Amino acid sequence: MERAPVLEVVDSPLDDAEDAIRANQPLPDALPVLPLRDTVTFPETLAPLAVGQERSIHLIDDVLGTNRMLAMVTARDPENEVPGPEDLYPVGVVGAVARMMKVPDGSLRILVQGMQRVKLGDFIAEEPYMVARISAMPDVIEPSAELEALSRNVQGTFSEIVEQIPYLPEELQIAIANIDDPAALAHLIAGALRIGTEEKQKLLEEIDVAKRLRHLSRILARELEVVQLGTQIQTQVQSEIDKGQREFFLRQQLKAIQDELGEGDEQQAEANELREKIAAAELPEQALKAAERELSRLEKLPPAAAEHGVIRTYLEWLTELPWAKETEDNLDLKHAREVLDSDHYDLEKIKDRILEYLAVRKLNPESPGPILCFVGPPGVGKTSLGKSIAKALGREFERISVGGVRDEAEIRGHRRTYIGAMPGTIVRALRDAGSRNPVFMIDEIDKMGADFRGDPASAMLEVLDPAQNDSFRDHYLDLEFDLSDVVFIATANVLDTIPGPLLDRMETIELAGYTLEEKRHIARRYLVRRQIEANGLKPPQIEFADAALTAIIEEYTREAGVRNLERQIGTVCRKVAREVAEGKTKGKVRISGKKARELLGRRRVFAEQRRRTKDPGVATGLAWTPTGGDVLFIEATAMPGSHDVHVHVPAGAVPKDGPSAGVAMTVALSSLVSGRPVRNDVAMTGEVTLTGQVLPIGGLKEKSLAAQRAGIKKVIVPGRNEGDVTEIPEHELGNLEFVYVDEVRQALDVALS
After folding, report:
1. In the prediction, which pLDDT does 559 show?
2. CB contact at 8 A, 635 and 618
3. What SS3 state is found at 21?
4. Residue 684 has what pLDDT?
5. pLDDT score at 8
6. In terms of Cα–Cα distance, which of 33, 35, 126 is closest to 78?
7. What local confidence, expressed as pLDDT, does residue 18 receive?
8. Distances (CA, A) of 296 to 189, 266, 276, 284
9. If I label 7, which of 128, 285, 296, 664 is the partner at 20 to 30 A Cα–Cα?
10. pLDDT at position 248, please?
């Protein structure tokens, strides 16, 4: 389609062009059709057009070689680049090409003299351009006093508009005054006005000249009113501003326009929007006063002020926080138990603690939420357990990772005096949760640090203290927020790095490592199913035997949890998925122990088995490590030629901590001196004083499980740890026998052959 060019650059007149434009020449039965976009031509007017489409250029070349006549018709949809016959208006104008100029980019600039209005009939061709039958649509003119009055009214109104609109040349006034033909007058004025394409098309299609003038009169009256209103607005604004303040002038002009239309300016609309948000947020009294105060300041500031954006952001944070929104707790204890059991195996202590909280909440709805700290090695399900608790309670869940946090402002937020200030992680999590009583999982709380920017652990004291967190104050908001309904669950791998005051505010629940049987059960019930689905397989395509799970656990993982176990199961599933995708495997693939070893490669983990040795000076000890318990051997040997004794602990790559190897070292030295070997089915743990007393140790469950894996039958433990042994479920210990000692000589009697 073609549209009028922005600049009417028409040059290079063609020879004999004037002879081709004859208003009285008869119309042919059919003419080429030139589609127009966003423009309407009128009879007895000149139309400058830009022609760029290949088919339109072809059309112009053809008509220039004949009678120069074509039909100009406007397309209904200006976005349609290649309109067909059904996309055009039914009425157009026959014109003759008066002049043409070629442009370097290959397009054309033409000047067309409008001649007669015509109606399109059947299209007899569409390629290489459209050709349609046409029929004339002459004007209907009935001379009358009304027609004369309409003509004069249109002439007068248009003259006023020309005087006030810069884009209309003054020569138009002279031309309009010299036109006596009402039809020609209407065509000239309609073509000169910048009005909508649809309105222009309606004027073109109207054959009754009186009706056309009446319609045009209404349009001119409207345009004159808009022009006069613009002049009035400009006058009002000009009196309020100083010269040279162009930006302010434009803003005031826009304001005056909006006032005239009954609308407020953009700044006022912004303030109204914030006021509605404040009303809907159900803010407490203190927060409502702060919001209204800041909104009042915002309304007085210009949008260009630096503080404008700061105040707006602050108000948006205030209105987005869930001051009064909360989820209703699901206090059905049976449902909670089902959810916890379906997501996690064992963990009875934690499940009982959550059910106790629900029971108390059911009896006393005002009771504060618990603040728990799950302590255990990686991969035992601490974080996922928090999600299950939120699911059981019917609350929103948000995880906050504080590992490596060293800035107090990460917890409490930055004060608004700083550029780029924002609330702390607690307030941000509340906003994301959308309720004031979510479950917050504060992950890796044992890994917070401190530097010159403050101590985030100290800032966490207020968050996790039930006596204070009902009035938690974030530095950015500088308002109190009640956190007493939030269920806080912290996770940690060790307790040693957690400051005492912070640890005192949390109820600690330890998650020990899993036994072989527990890992097998978890793998069958959760991990295998999850990895089969994650790797695009289906249960009928793959099956894991117990022997395969045992091989993966004992030979390819060394961990207290099951994270690496799931990773290895995923590796097996991926390799099977590849075989299925390549068409190498049909039917179900059964993963046996042998098949698992083939898929996973060489053995990665070698468990320490009890050593059979005739040499004295070797004792079997037990150690706690971050990945669970482990067996270690204490070796003692006398150095030749002196009384020096060398004590060695093999497997130095395995991290160990604490003084619990004292009993094992004493037994190894006694074995060396006495020449009596240590029984190879006995392991021991305990701290020894200089007077021979055996003191209690920690991590007894993990050490006991390590002894069981190593084939140990008897474990020597301090007498004060007897209570810890009773807390270990019997099914986890198997046939393991415990011997309780208070003095080291009792251990020597049991351990030495």
Report:
1. 80
2. yes
3. coil
4. 93
5. 38
6. 35
7. 42
8. 52, 16, 14, 18
9. 128
10. 67
Tokens at residue 736, please? 């393991």
CA distances from 434 to 306, 325, 327, 439 (A): 30, 7, 9, 12
Angle (nearest 5°) at CA 231 between 230 and 235 = 115
Contact 471, 417 (CB under 8 A): no
Measure the CA–CA gap between 154 and 285, rounded to whole angstroms: 64
Contact 498, 492 (CB under 8 A): yes
DSSP string over 156-218: HHHHHHHHH-TTS-THHHHHHHT---HHHHHHHHHHHS---HHHHHHHHH--BHHHHHHHHHH
CA atoms of 34 and 36, how far apart (whole Å): 6
DSSP state letter for 560: S
Residues designated catalytic? 660, 703
pLDDT in the model for residue 745: 93
Structure tokens belonging to residue 704: 């006991």
pLDDT at 81: 84
Find out whether 369 and 488 touch, Cβ atoms under 8 Å.
yes
Instruction: State how far the Cα of 667 lies from the Cα of 747, in Å rounded to an integer.
Output: 8
Q: Which among 35, 191, 14, 10 is positioned nearest to 109, based on CA atoms?
A: 10
Residue type, 166: P
Q: Which of 664, 623, 672 is nearest to 646 (CA)?
A: 672
Residue 223 pairs in a beta bridge with none
Phi then psi for residue 14, to 5 deg, are -85, 150
CB 716 within 8 A of CB 686: yes
Q: Quick one: CA torsion of 434, 437, 438, 440, rounded to 10 degrees?
A: 120
Continuous segment of H or E residues that includes residue 284: none
pLDDT of residue 245: 62
Residue 250 CA to residue 257 CA, distance in Å, equals: 11
Q: Are 661 and 632 in contact (CB under 8 A)?
A: yes
* Structural tokens at position 619: 């004792």
DSSP letters spanning 304-334: TSHHHHHHHHHHHHHHHS-SS--PPP---HH
b/e per residue, 635-649, with b = 16+ CB within 10 A?
bbbeeeeeeeeeeeb
The H-or-E segment that residue 670 falls in is: helix 662-674
CA angle 33, 36, 37 (to 5 degrees): 155
For the record, the structure tokens of 176 come out as 């309009």
Are 46 and 112 within 8 A, CB to CB? yes
Dist CA 395 CA 325 (whole Å): 12
C-alpha to C-alpha distance for 154 and 148, rounded to whole angstroms: 10
Three-state secondary structure call for residue 56:
helix
Q: For the chain, which ranges sit under pLDDT 70?
A: 1-25, 237-249, 251, 254-255, 258-266, 607-614, 626-628, 641, 643, 651-658, 732
Q: Is the dihedral of CA 601, 605, 607, 613 positive or negative?
A: positive
**Number of Cα atoms under 13 Å in the Cβ half of residue 86:** 0
* 30-36/69-74 β-pairing: parallel
φ, ψ of residue 239 to 5 degrees: the values are -75, -15
Total-model pTM: 0.58
Phi, psi of 749 (to 5 degrees): -65, -35
Rounded to whole angstroms, the Cα distance separating 102 from 508 reads 87
